[in-house]
Amino acid sequence: MRAAYDVRGELDLISNSELPYSEVRPMVDQLEERVNVLQNAAVLLIEDETAAPAPEVMVPEKDVFDQTKDAVDSVVAPVVDQVQQGAQGAADAVKHTFDDNVAPVLNQVGDALKPVNDAVLKPVGNAANEVAKRAGDAANEAAKRAGDAANAVQGFFGGLFGRK
């Protein structure tokens, strides 16, 4: 404010001087501009001090859909894991049952028939191998379908409660 007061004093001094108007007018315009700049600066400083503080940055919270999706995922994920483990266990049990019980019997039958007729044994051995292969394939398919079913359940609940 003292600077504005000093500039006004200089403006009064030059305005009341004995200098010709053509010399005084450019200096008067420049001094008036300085006074206006100083006044605007003072107004801005006052406004800065009286302005409300800037609001804090708000962090969005999870909405109801996100919370529900998280809750369903926390319940469904263990069930999906149990279904997959159960299906794999069942598939392994079928394969082991065949390998431990059926395959040896078929091998004994094949061994008993070998001296009688090789023509009979080859189809039985091939059949045993084919049955073992198909049992393994069936076990793998059961495990795959159980996994697909578990993924479908998880996808269904994820679709219901997915992001908006």
| Parts with pLDDT < 50 across at least 5 consecutive residues | none
Average pLDDT over all residues:
79
Taken as a percent bin, the fraction of beta residues is under 5%
Determine the structural class based on helices, strands and strand pairing. Answer: mainly alpha
What's the number of extended β-strand segments?
0
Relative helix content: over 70%
Q: Could you describe the largest sheet, including whether it forms a barrel? A: none
Order of helices and strands: HHHH
- State the end-to-end distance: 57 Å
Global Rg:
47 Å
Number of helices: 4
Anisotropy-based shape: rod-shaped
Written overview of the protein:
This protein is mainly α and 164 residues long. Helix content is 84%, strand content 0%. Helix 3 runs antiparallel to helix 4. The two termini are 57 Å apart. The model has no long low-confidence stretch (mean pLDDT 79).
Topology:
Elements: H1 2-15, H2 21-50, H3 64-113, H4 118-160
Short note summarizing the structure:
The protein is mostly helical. It has helices at residues 2-15, 21-50, 64-113, 118-160.
Name its key features.
single chain, 164 residues, mainly alpha, 4 helices, 0% strand, rod-shaped
